[in-house]
Design a protein that fits this description.
The complex is a heterodimer of chains A (about 140) and B (about 80). Chain A is of the alpha+beta class and about 140 residues long. Helices cover about 25% and strands about 40% of the residues of chain A. In chain A, strands 3, 4, 6, 8 and 9 form a 5-stranded antiparallel β-sheet that branches. A 4-stranded mixed β-sheet of chain A has the order 1-5-7-2, covered by helices on one side. Chain A is elongated and about 50 Å long. Chain B contains 2 helices and 5 strands, in the order βαβαβββ.
Chain lengths: ~140, ~80
């Protein structure tokens, strides 16, 4: 099962679930906003999405990940709007029988997310100005 | 003539200075022709930026002929995560 959500505000992390008796691995990834972008100090990133398309593409990617790897469930929340330095912008949880398939799935999912989901970052500099982020690491 | 809406994001928004454009184009205009027009409107600011095309919120890998009422986005490199 996949659960995908794009939220404009703080992310509520997936709550602990001790009933998952068939899942030997529970992998959690939190992407956080760094204090520097290409050597410049920033105070925040502002995430922009192509509304509608971003959530559809993200859901399709989550489903494709569950088909490509033998994992049980994938939960993803991506934040848009202003995210200050240190806060979480991306929260992903994957459950699988063993760790390897979960780790492989997590790597692939995040790599593909950074290639195809129409979400962009604007860097908020210390003087308050806003410029498109130059950061597009895969 | 056809009327299309262009959604602008990230570097495209920065280069054109707007979130959205509505253009009247000749019938038969293709995505490639419209991309060329958008790049000309950006006056060089998009020259080094690769753009993917989405029509009606779906990526289109190849050139397509636009239809009246289409929503088009020229998508610069994405940066989620």
């Amino acid at each position: 099962m996949v659960t995908v959500e794009i939220v404009n505000g703080p992310i509520s992390f997936f709550s602990n679930d001790d009933s998952r008796e068939q899942n030997g691995a529970e992998l959690i990834f939190n992407g956080r906003v760094r204090a520097t972008e290409h050597g410049k100090n920033i105070t925040a990133l502002e995430y922009e999405q192509y509304e509608g398309m971003a959530e559809v593409e993200l859901t399709q990617l989550a489903k494709a990940t569950c088909e490509k790897f033998p994992i049980h469930d994938l939960y993803c929340k991506h934040r848009i709007g202003r995210v200050v330095v240190g806060e979480t912008s991306l929260h992903v949880v994957i459950w699988s029988k063993h760790r390897k398939e979960g780790l492989d799935a997590m790597t692939w999912f995040i790599t593909e997310l950074k290639k195809r989901i129409p979400i962009w970052k604007w860097a908020i500099l210390e003087d308050g100005s806003k410029i498109p982020s130059e950061c597009s690491h895969e | 003539m056809i009327k299309v809406t262009i959604k602008c994001f990230s570097q495209v928004k920065y280069a054109l200075g707007t979130n959205e454009l509505i253009l009247e184009l000749d019938s038969g205009t293709t995505t490639s022709k419209l991309e060329q027009l958008v790049r000309e409107m950006a006056e060089g600011k998009l020259d080094d930026i690769s753009l993917r095309v989405a029509v009606n919120q779906k990526y289109v890998p190849n050139e397509v002929e636009l239809q009246d009422g289409d929503e088009v986005a020229f998508i610069p490199p994405v940066q989620g995560g």
